[in-house]
From TrEMBL:
Entry's family note: Belongs to the major facilitator superfamily. Nitrate/nitrite porter (TC 2.A.1.8) family.
Biased composition annotated in UniProt, kind: Basic and acidic residues: 481-492
Keyword Membrane: yes
Name of this protein: Uncharacterized protein
One Pfam match: MFS_1
Principal localisation: membrane
Length: 506
């Protein structure tokens, strides 16, 4: 019997997009809403954008909020830290939830659980309550992990970087969009006669409602995998129910995930920090109007419309030409350039030059985010969610560290803090040279000469003999075959039918 909205039970499932042996789309058609692949894409980025708008809705209104609640510089710094620290562990938990329950339920549940915090922002009456609502709202940023997991489940190796980059980038647009939306909403409310200390509170109902509606859209219209939802697939026997302990173990013991978490902490983490401080920085340093400072700050976040997707596209192009080594090298170069531009941003003294450097810096840092998640889907097949969660959580850890070290209180001026943050970006990008895949190589050396260093050996190492006897490893075999493209054009390879087990594992 066919399950509505899925392809279970269909001997020859039909999809609007061409697919590989796992039924993942091998093409990315941006302006299509075809189910299930492109529909999942649009639901994921819209819901993530809603969470981003909510998490940073307070930033452009801080000059008004700080006067109303008598916030000190330390209070503002702590609130900024709180807005990104909550998602550190939430992202790791979200990754595991995606592995076990699917991205649709995991994402919608978190969005609905965090929505009340946005409504409660309107009744914040003290620095402590303001910090708390920003902390709980920030949990919603963990939906980034479900977004990347969902895209990696729907799109094949040749286009997964592009899908991840566009979904993540367009979701991150919320960081720029909120810099425009919230001052505009605030002004409209003030124009109808509401006093400003009440207007900013009413304004928070707009992002709260947007986030709530996005959760219901994901639940009603979304689908976990190309062939259906997790629960239906497990019932039908088409997807084995994995063990939490094994999924978690294979994720946290893969050192590549930890390195990517560190480097992501200083591209996405820096982006989060900039979202929190940049409007206030321009407002105070150049004596601008609140609305003007918001527009300039928005230009940084809005660069995501092309920058992060561009990073994903570059990653796929480099992977096609040079394999995994090309993906790693391009990530290192782009992120290091972002660090250099960050140093320059803190040292530029004119308004015009600062805006130009800010936008250029944002493009490089956000492209590095897209390049990072061009690598993440290949680190593990069994523990994809955990690796995604670790990497995403690393982004929030980086944001917390940079704000504690450079922007909390008055230890450094904001311009000095920005330059020091750039030095940190450069240093924390260097460990990328330590990532090595036996079947593909790393930045500094090529693949292993060992005959057993194949895609099948790498991905089947996550399964023990009992799991293989039960056939749990079949999805990893398909993924291994579909990821042969990571060898690049320079290394010829004969594709192996996905339903055949290599002789070494027979």
């Amino acid at each position: 019997m066919d399950i509505p909205g899925s392809n279970i039970g269909s001997e020859h499932p039909k999809f609007a997009l061409p697919v590989d042996s796992e039924h993942k789309a091998t093409e990315f058609r941006l302006f299509s809403a075809a189910a299930p692949h492109m529909r999942a894409f649009h639901l994921s980025w819209i819901s993530f954008l809603a969470c981003f708008v909510s998490s940073f809705a307070a930033a452009p209104l801080l000059p008004v909020i700080r006067d109303n609640l008598n916030l000190t510089a330390t209070d503002i710094g702590n609130a900024g830290i709180a807005s990104v620290s909550g998602a550190v562990f939430a992202r790791i938990a979200m990754g595991t939830a995606c592995d076990l329950f699917g991205p649709r339920l995991a994402s919608a549940a978190l969005i609905l659980l965090t929505s009340p915090a946005i409504y409660f922002t309107s009744i914040a009456s003290s620095p402590v309550s303001f910090i708390l609502v920003r902390f709980f709202t920030g949990f919603s940023l963990a939906t980034f992990v479900s977004t990347q997991f969902w895209m990696s489940s729907m799109f094949s190796a040749p286009v997964v970087g592009t899908a991840n980059g566009v979904a993540g980038g367009w979701g991150n647009l919320g960081g720029g969009a909120t810099q425009l939306i919230m001052p505009l909403v605030f002004s409209l409310i003030c124009n109808i006669g509401v006093v400003k200390f009440t207007a900013w509170r009413i304004a928070f109902f707009i992002p709260a409602l947007f986030q709530t509606l996005s959760a219901f859209a994901v639940l009603i219209f979304g689908q976990d995998m190309p062939d259906g939802n997790f629960k239906a697939l497990q019932k039908s026997g088409n997807k084995p129910k994995d063990k939490f302990s094994q999924v978690f173990y294979h994720g946290i013991t893969n050192y590549r995930g930890w390195i990517l978490a560190l480097t992501y902490g200083f591209c996405f983490g820096v982006e989060l920090t900039v979202d929190n401080i940049i409007a206030e920085y321009f407002y105070d340093r150049f004596n601008l109007k609140l609305h003007t400072a918001g527009i300039i700050a928005a230009s940084s976040g809005l660069a995501n419309i092309v920058s992060r997707p561009g990073g994903g596209i570059i990653s796929d192009a480099m992977g096609k030409r040079f394999g995994m080594r090309g993906r790693l090298w391009s990530l290192w170069v782009v992120q290091t350039m972002g660090g250099v531009l960050c140093i320059i941003l803190g040292r530029v003294g004119s308004l015009t030059a600062s805006i130009i450097v800010l936008i250029t810096f944002s493009v490089f840092v956000q492209a590095a985010c897209g390049l990072t998640f061009g690598v993440v889907p290949f680190v593990s097949r069994r523990s994809l969610g955990v690796i995604s969660g670790m990497t995403g959580g690393g982004g929030n850890v980086g944001a917390v560290l940079t704000q504690i070290i450079f922007f909390r209180g008055s230890k450094y001026s904001k311009e000095t803090g920005i330059s020091l943050m750039g030095i940190m970006i450069i240093c924390c990008t260097l460990p990328l040279c330590l990532i090595y895949f036996p079947q593909w190589g790393g930045m500094l050396c090529g693949p292993s000469s060992n005959d057993n260093a194949t895609e099948e050996d790498y991905y089947l190492s996550e399964w023990n003999s009992k799991d293989k006897e039960k056939g749990f490893h079949h999805a990893s075999l398909k993924f291994a075959d579909n990821s042969r493209s990571e060898r690049g054009r320079r290394v010829g390879s004969e594709p192996m039918p996905f339903d055949e087990t290599p002789a070494t594992h027979a």
